[in-house]
Amino acid sequence: MSDLNRVETAYRRIGSRWAWNVVSFAGFQGWESSLRRRTVEHLELRHGDRVLDIACGRGSNFPHLQRAVGAQGHIVGVDYSATMLAGAKELIRRERWTNVEIVRGDAAETHFNAAFDGALCTVAMTVIPRWQDAMRRMIGAVQPGRRIAIMDGRLPTGLARAGLPFARFFSRIVAADLDRDVESECKKMLNNIREEVRMFGTYFIISGEGPSGV
Ligand SMILES: C[S@@+](CC[C@H](N)C(=O)[O-])C[C@H]1O[C@@H](n2cnc3c(N)ncnc32)[C@H](O)[C@@H]1O
Q: Ligand 1 centroid vs 79 CA: distance in angstroms?
C-alpha cells in the first residue's frame, strides 16, 4: 500500500463527524480552539485576504480563518482524504459560507496559480507523506512578505515524557510521524521566524515568511 493510500485508509476510519470529534478531543485535550486561534493569529491576516489551508481536513480552521479574512476574503482548503473533505463541505453548507473553495489533491503535488496572503497547515505536516515538498509548495503559494504558519504535535520532553506512550499510540491512529523535525525544516525554509510551544511542550506553532522563489 502506498503512503498516500495509507493516509486515505486511516482518514476513512477516523474522518466521520463523531470519530473526528473523539480523535480531536483526545489529541488536543481541551486546547483545540486556542491552538487554532493562535495559529491563525500568526498569519496576521486582514479582512479581504486570500488564505490557503493545507491538508484542511474537515475544515476545523475555517471558523477562525473566517473571522480573520471576513466575508470579502477567500479561503482555499486542500486535502487528500475524500472522507475529511466531505466533512469540510458539510460545514461550508451548514454555515452558508460562499467564500470557501475545497480542492482534493496531494499537497505535495498541487500547484497554486494564485498568490495567497497567508497559508497554514495544522496537525498535518507530520502526516503528509512528502511533507517537505508540501511545505515548499505551500511557501511558494504565498506572496513575499506574508506569513506561513504550521502547528503540529511533537514528542514530549522533560516531565511530559510520561505521556510518550500515549503520544506514540495516538500518532499511529492519525497516521502521524512524530519523529519528523518539522520545526528545523521550517527554520531552514522560512525567514523572520516566530515560534511557541504549547500544551507542556507537546505542540508547537511556528511561522515565518517565505523567501521569494522557493
Ligand atoms: C490530523 S488531520 C488534520 C486536518 C486539519 N488540518 C486539522 O487541523 O484538523 C491530517 C490531514 O492531512 C491530510 N493529508 C495527509 N496527506 C495529505 C496529502 N499528501 N495531501 C493533502 N492532504 C493530506 C489528511 O487527509 C488529513 O485530513
A: 6
Q: What is the pLDDT along the chain (214 residues), one digit of tens a residue?
A: 789 999 999 999 999 999 999 999 999 988 999 999 999 999 999 999 999 999 999 999 999 999 999 999 999 999 999 999 999 999 999 999 999 999 999 999 999 876 999 999 999 999 999 999 999 999 999 999 999 999 999 988 887 788 888 889 999 999 999 999 999 999 999 999 999 999 888 999 999 998 855 5
CATH number of the structural domain spanning residue 21: 3.40.50.150
φ, ψ for residue 93, nearest 5 deg: -65, -45
Q: Establish if 174 belongs to a structural domain.
A: yes
Task: Report how many domains make up the chain.
Answer: 1
Range of the domain at 149: 3-209
Instruction: Please tell me the pTM assigned to this model.
Output: 0.96
Residue 42, classified by CB atoms within 10 Å of its CB into exposed (0-12), middle (13-18) or buried (19+), is buried
Pocket test for ligand 1, best of 16, 127, 152, 174 (most atoms within 8 A of CB): 127
Nearest protein CA to atom 19 of ligand 1, as residue: 106
The pocket around ligand 1, CB under 6 angstroms, is made up of 4, 7, 11, 55-57, 60-61, 78-81, 84, 106-108, 122-124, 127-129, 174
Q: What string of DSSP letters covers 15-71? A: -SHHHHHHHHHHHHTT-HHHHHHHHHHHTT--TT-EEEEET-TTTTTHHHHHHHHTT
20 C-alpha to center of ligand 1: Å?
12
Using the mean position of ligand 1's atoms as its centre, give its distance from the Cα of residue 164 in Å.
22
